[in-house]
Each structure stands twice: as C-alpha cells, then as structure tokens.
Design brief:
Distance between the termini: 153 Å
Helix content: 10-25%
Oligomer: single chain
Low-confidence stretches: 1-27
Number of strands: 30
Shape: rod-shaped
Length: 464
C-alpha cells in the first residue's frame, strides 16, 4: 500500500503545531518536575514563595520562618536555581520556593536556639526522650514548674517542641509548646493565702533581681500571710508576704518558713459600775461592794488565732462624807481588792506571773494587820512575818482609795527588800496572794488636827 504524501504532510504539520504550542506554554523554563520527598526547614527570611513560574506571588518566608515542610518535588530552572514544591504535614501546598532559603532536615526540623522561660501549664502531655517518641516523663509530674527552653524544634507535624532544662541544668526532655506558657525566671504569680511563720534568717527580697528588702529574723514567729507564691526556675518557691496590717514585707524562700501555729490567748476587761448600774470612769470616793465574771467572748482571727475576752464587772457604793469613824480603825475591802490588783499588775509589768487571790492568805494578812492598828494613830505599826510585806503612814492629807493604794505601792517598790518580795517568782514560795488594808480618821492630841492613817499588809505564800 502506498503512503499518501499529502497525509504525511498534514500529520507532520500537525505535530509541528503541537510542538510550537508546547514550547510557548513552557516559556518560564522551570524544567521538568523531579520527584523529591525530602524534608526542609525554612532558614532564610525575605524570600518570595511563588504561585507559579510566571512569578505570581503567593507568600513570603517571613511568615513561615523556621517551619519544616516536605519538598514533594523540585524544578531545576534555567536561571540556575532549584525550586521546591512545598507541602505541609496536612498535604496543603505552600508554593514554589528557592532551595537557597531552606536547609535539609529531619522531621523535627533543625535545632533553634531559644533561652526563654516557660511554665508547665497543662497536664497529661507526654515529655519525650527523642523524636522516635520514646516516653521520658509526663507533665503531670512537672505541672506548675518553671523550666528553661534552651532550644526548640518546629516539627513537620506542625507542632513546636521545646528542649527543656531545670534550674540545675538537668535536661527534662522534649515537650510540645502547647503544654506551656511563656513566663520569666520567677514564674507566674500564683494566688495562695496561707498563713506562715518565719523560722530561719533568710533575706527578704524587693524583687527578683535580688535587691534586698529586709531580714527574716526581724519577723520570727509572727503570723504572716503568703498572699501569693512563685515557683522559680532555680527550683525554689518564693512567698509574697504580708503582715496582718497589710504591710508588704517582700519575697522569701519558702524553705525559711513553716505553717503558722494558731495561738489561744485570754484577756480580762474590767468595768466599774455604781450600785445603779452606771459606768464609772473613776472609783475615787467609792467603796467596793462585789464583782462578777462573764463566760467570755471568743473571736477567731483569719490566721486561726483564738482569743477569749472575759469581762469582770465590779460594783461600787458611793462613800458618804466623813465615812471613816473618828478613832476607829476600819477595814476596807475595796482598798484591799485594789491593792491586790495593783500587786499583780506590777508583777505582770515586770514579766512575772500573776498570783491567785486566796482567802487564807487574806486571813493571814488581816490577822497581822489587826494587831498593828490602834485607836491611837501614833501606835500604828507595819510589823509582819517573812511571807508578808507591810507599810503604814499617817498624814493630815486625806488620800482617796486609789491615791492610798498608789502610795503604798510606791513605798514597796522603792524599798529593795519589799520589791524583791513583790516579784518573788519561785512557785514553791509564791503561789497565792491575800491582803488587808485599814484606815482611820483621828484627832492629834497636841495640835487638834485631823489625822488620816493607813496600813497595808500583803501575804505572798504557797500551798505547801
């Protein structure tokens, strides 16, 4: 069969036309597609990423810097450059990029120096030994801690992994950044509220640049509130401490503290009333009648301290004019009670324990006092036994009850021997207290002047 030359010419012309059209379509001259499959990391900024080889812009490496992609294919362009066709881990095409803006890497990407501090903010995240996903730890064991991300990896799977170290330089493993929160070396503020007491002389800090604010020893055993705390990268916890009045003391290492131990304390409040129930500002010119003590009112402080206040209500009867009978020594229960109270108040001011008011001790004092008084004021004496103290004086000046008690106390305190007896602190000799006070109005036989005489006796003894 003969070949038709016209048909051959037509076919040849057709092939020539197709070739001519194909040449025009590949005018960009990117070259043929070459299958690749390597993983690359974006290592340079300010490189354009192209939509096609007509140089239609799609993106810029500034937006994907340090990320890892798969170069599924590449083109060796006639301009001498190699262009990768890049895809992310989800198969989304990113565009064509000059290979010079990349570096071949593994799936985790290249190591990127970091240095930031991060707080472990989520639980139930695995911490990896390597990128073969060998388990090293879990964030449940590191939760709330502050660690340093010395470096990071931007993995092909789309996640960033930190290479974490503690404050002692111990490597903790690789962790997905999604389980962390950026912070500073001291970590984030954590609300607290516990009450503590300082037990060691550690420094109090003004800030975490370690500017000193004070000494812990100045606040030993006080109830202090840690309103907040910081879990520092150095491995220590620091409390932000406040006094009860709201004054901020600074930051202190929790190792210098222990939980505050609440205290139970008591106090006594005394109210003086007349026989009509009116509150008295002063008992001068009044005679003691009786007293009663309530069951106490208890309050609990925010720090746990329990304080009970007992109220003693004393009833006083107003004195009549010239109540002291002329020439008759008169026992005063009210001055006796005031005298005993003054002795205990003085002991307390000198850090010595209070003595218990005792009826037998009062009887001893009264037996002694009654032997030292007479209708003749010149015969009044202050003789007493070894377990007693006594003082007496006479004056043309009238002393109110409070003034007389104050004068007697001054006489005892200014006498070294009596003062030592007042402050006896051996429980074998000083357990109980009982007093007796007498006074009298009389006439001086020589001058005819009115004289006022006072005798104070106190017994300090013990049960044995």
């Amino acid at each position: 069969m003969k070949k038709n030359p016209l048909k051959k010419l037509i076919i040849t012309g057709t092939l020539a036309l197709v070739f001519s059209i194909g040449t025009k379509a590949e005018a960009a001259n990117q070259g043929p597609y070459i299958k690749d499959g390597s993983l690359v990391q974006i290592t340079k900024q300010n490189y354009d990423i192209w939509q096609n080889f007509n140089w239609q812009l799609k993106n810029n490496t500034n937006n994907i810097y340090n990320q890892t992609f798969e170069a599924k294919g590449r083109y060796l362009h006639e301009n001498g450059q190699t262009y990768y066709s890049l895809f992310d881990n989800k198969g989304t095409w990113q565009g064509y990029l000059n290979a010079k803006a990349t570096k071949k890497t593994s799936k985790q990407g290249g190591y990127i120096s970091d240095g930031s501090y991060v707080k472990i903010s989520k639980k139930n995240y695995e911490v990896w030994q390597n990128f073969n996903w060998q388990l090293k730890n879990n964030t449940n064991n590191l939760y709330g801690q502050t660690l340093q991300a010395r470096g990071r990896y931007q993995h092909f799977n789309g996640s960033t992994y930190y290479s974490l170290f503690d404050g002692k330089g111990n490597w903790q493993g690789y962790l997905n950044s999604g389980a962390t929160k950026k912070t500073n070396a001291q970590g984030d503020y954590i609300a607290d509220g516990r009450y503590i007491q300082i037990t060691k002389n550690y420094d109090l800090w003004q800030n975490f640049n370690w500017k000193k604010k004070g000494d812990g020893s100045n606040h030993y055993n006080k109830p202090l509130q840690a309103k907040g705390r910081y879990q520092h990268f150095n491995g220590n916890t620091y409390y932000s401490l406040f006094e009860e009045n709201g004054n901020w003391l600074g930051y202190i290492n929790a190792s210098a503290t222990s939980p505050y131990k609440p205290k139970e304390t008591e106090s006594i409040k005394t109210i003086n009333k007349d026989t009509n129930g009116n509150i008295l500002k002063s008992t001068n010119g009044y005679t003691y009648v009786s007293e009663s003590k309530d069951k106490g009112k208890t309050t609990t402080s925010p720090n746990g301290d329990i304080h009970t206040t007992y109220t003693i209500t004393k009833i006083w009867r107003k004195n009549k004019e010239n109540e002291l009978k002329l020439g008759i020594p008169t026992y005063s229960l009210s001055m006796t009670a005031k005298f005993e109270e003054s002795i205990n108040n003085y002991r307390q001011s000198q850090n010595v324990y209070n003595l218990e008011i005792n009826k037998n001790s009062r009887m001893k004092s009264d037996n002694t006092a009654s032997k030292n008084v007479s209708s003749d004021w010149t015969q009044w004496r202050a003789q007493h036994s070894e377990e007693q103290i006594g003082t007496t004086w006479s004056s043309v000046t009238y002393y109110s009850e409070d003034e007389a008690v104050s004068q007697a106390m001054a006489n005892f305190i200014n006498s070294p021997g009596h003062r030592n007896n007042l402050l006896e602190d051996d429980p074998n000799f000083a357990e109980f207290l009982g007093a007796s006070v007498y006074s009298m109005r009389s006439l001086d036989a020589k001058t005819g002047a009115i004289m006022y005489s006072y005798l104070f006796i106190a017994t300090i003894d013990a049960s044995w």
